[in-house]
Amino acid sequence: MPTQINSVIKAYANCDHVIVAWRYDQLIPNCIGFALYKKTQGETNATAEPLPNRIGFAGQSPQPGEQRPSTEWPIQRFTWTDYDVKYNDTVSYMVVPMMMSGTDVAKDTNNASGWSTTVTVATGKDYEAYFNRGIISSQFMSHQMANLQASDKSATLATTLSNEDSIITKFLGGVLADHLFSELNAVINDATLSIYSSLYELNDGNVIAAFEKIGSRLNLVLANGAFSPKDNNDENADLRAQLHKTDINIFDRIVTSGHFAHNKFMVFCKNGTPYKVWTGSTNLTTNGLYTQVNNAVIINNPAVAQWYLDEWNQIKTAGNAYPASYINYNTGGNATNNNMTTWFAPVKGFVDLAAAKTLIDNAQQGILFLFFNPGTKDTLYNEVVGQIGKAGKENLFVHGIMNQDPGGNKTPLVFIHKGNAQTTDYDTIIPKAIKGEFSYWENEITPKMVTIHSKVVVIDPFGANPVVITGSHNLGPKASAKNDDNMNIIQGNPSLAMQYAVNILAVYDHFHWRYSLAQNIKGATGYKGLSTDPNWMASYMAGSVVNELAFMLGGSVTAAVTNATSANTAAAPVAKKAAVSAAKKAAKKKAAPAKKVAKPAVKKAAKKVAKKAAAKKAKAPAKKAAKKAVKKIAKKAPVKKAVKKVAKKAAKKAAGAKK
User: Fold this and answer.
1) What is the pLDDT of residues 423-473, one digit of tens each?
2) What is the Cα–Cα distance from 134 to 294, expressed in whole angstroms?
3) How far is 432 from 435, CA to CA, in rounded Å?
4) How far apart are CA 58 and CA 61, in angstroms?
5) What are phi and psi for residue 592, nearest 5 degrees?
């Protein structure tokens, strides 16, 4: 039986989905992809089933909406997001290389990985991270909307989202929306509980109905965003008038142009004492909960909850203004509690951003992010991107999306793809690319709206000292100096960092796959589906992909991985090593005649190279490697000519074995 190739596989989960990553130490001959098996609680190895893939082989004619097991349509990559999990599922994964045998696909069980460590689809305890899906451009959404049999999908979507129990609403809102209503219902049903909240926007009918049931136990600062100097700049005006007629203790905060009263937090109190806080990027609006990518975090820490309650009182006291006392209070910051610091804005001198920048500058393994419109200068986005290529940080993995243009015009999404910047527009992402290349996929809804609304930076999520930066803060100078906002810096919590990392990687993958597809279509040959060429694997075992897997899986990258380009290039490193060795030996013996010294050593090496090259059937790579090595190493004038000639002859002889 052939020697098994070493492999590593790991799984990471948050409350909504799982990301699986794997790596092999060298190329697998004739591998055309992987079958990914999932084992859930109670299942045995024998009963585990392969996950499905929606991408078929180029040239096939699948049925609309078709998907097949990854044993039939293999996964041609080294990471995968499993959305087909439920809250509290316990799962592990295994990959099996798939080989092309004639026209059939067969398993290479000898090189199957082991099972990954078991992970649970859930959130943490001290910090509970929740995520919606907010992605209306997906095959799931298209299938569900098709079932509604409506001609006006946009109008139908808006009507559907008003139904908290519809399949589409539950899908888009995900665990975030579900848990939000659980928290509100708990307050409704317990007279000892109350809420102090500061909100920027509020229009979701189901949230408003819950607030009205809480009544006098809800203390709400309802603010606005001043988009223009005109008097009519309160998007909450109609609702404000409605809520003033209820039992809710409502306090108006109508700020002037240039400011956004941008907080979205709720402090939960029991018998008047704060014990936890809900914050994050999610506005309690229909778009915020369902059609934008957002996050929320519950911080189960009474000290931090007290910080937020104190801030709520500062905001209430400030009225419609930004008095010096309010700004000075925020600039003083809050003492760290259990490795957490909260900054409230506005502050003087951008002290909140400075604290975050210091941590970004200390990143060791990688930085993941989602940004929404942070600005163009001196933002945390600028600081993150500025880490790329720094001396000593050449292998730092930087990866994420910035939703730059909320109007959906020229360049709404900016990708930093494994350290390289890429910009696009909505039409480049969807639905043109999908419709053009995968006719068997359902047409997808095109969003002409904010897509990524999360604001989060995760530093070294899989390292020893992870950091999560998140809140309502857009992470730029305007938010720091002009807006009501909060930014939480949480250090040393691997579970929380992993959960945010999984969310960022999944969101990124969804949008960037569509971008990549569109870019391929612009070229001479569009992507048509899975390839039967085993050399597909070579591009995933070099460059930025290797850095990504090293970032996610830990450990060093082997020479076999970094140097391999195909299963037939093994002769090239052998030839190079032999030629370099011969050149060095020849260079050391200056006194002897050059040819006489160099020839025996190189001749011996050539025989060894020829033998291995014949087995690998490699011609050009061996010759090229030998020539390159001689040019670089054999620079001594007396021996240069002889070494070059002999090495060239040796490489030619080795490659000639093919004939």
Assistant:
1) 766 555 444 444 444 444 445 555 555 578 999 999 999 999 999 999 999
2) 7
3) 5
4) 9
5) -80, 155
Phi-psi sector, 339: left (phi>0), alpha (psi -120 to 50), beta: left
Query: What does pTM read for this prediction?
Result: 0.80
Comparing 146-150, 207-211, 458-462, 565-569, the range with the smallest average pLDDT is 565-569
Ranges of beta strands (E only) in 393-434 are 397-403, 413-417, 420-424
User: Is residue 543 classed as helix, strand or coil in its secondary structure?
Assistant: coil
Sign, Cα dihedral of 23, 29, 32, 37? negative
Would you say 634 and 626 are in contact if contact means Cβ atoms under 8 Å apart?
A: no
266: tokens are: 């709720």
- Whether the bond between 50 and the residue before it is cis, its omega within 30 degrees of 0, is no
**Structure-block tokens of residue 538:** 């070579």
Beta-bridged to residue 128, according to DSSP, are 298
CA torsion sign for 290, 295, 300, 305 is negative
Are the beta carbons of 577 and 40 closer than 8 angstroms?
no
Residue recorded with tokens 């039992």: 247
The SS3 of residue 273 is strand
DSSP string, 43-110: --TTT-EEPEES--BTT--PPTT--EETTTS-B-SSEEEE----TT-EEEEEEEEEEEETTEEEE-GG
C-alpha torsion 324→374→263→177, nearest 10: -170
Do residues 42 and 61 make contact, with C-beta atoms less than 8 angstroms apart?
A: no
> Of the candidates 68, 147, 78, 33, which has an alpha carbon nearest to the alpha carbon of residue 440?
68
What's the rounded Cα separation, in Å, for the pair 51 and 40? 12
Distance (Å, whole) CA 345 – CA 479 = 7
Distances (CA, A) of 375 to 329, 401, 540, 622: 25, 14, 34, 51
Question: Omega into 431 within 30° of 0, i.e. cis?
Answer: yes
Quote the pLDDT of residue 545.
Answer: 83
- Do residues 109 and 143 touch, judged by C-beta distance below 8 A? no
What pLDDT, in 10s, does the model give residues 246-259?
999 999 999 987 88
Strand order across the 273-280 sheet: 127-131, 295-299, 273-280, 264-270, 193-199, 218-222, 249-252
Separation of alpha carbons 198 and 475, rounded Å: 19
Q: Are residues 380 and 476 in contact, defined by beta-carbon separation less than 8 angstroms?
A: yes
Mean pLDDT of the chain: 80
Give the pair of three-digit tokens for residue 435: 């419709």
CA distance 339 to 467: 10
List of residues 6+ apart from 81 with CB closer than 8 A: 17, 18, 19, 20, 505, 506, 509
Using one digit for the tens of pLDDT, what is the confidence trace for 573-614?
333 343 334 334 444 443 344 343 334 444 444 444 444 444
The dihedral sign for the CA sequence 53, 54, 56, 62: positive
Return the amino acid letter for 387.
Q
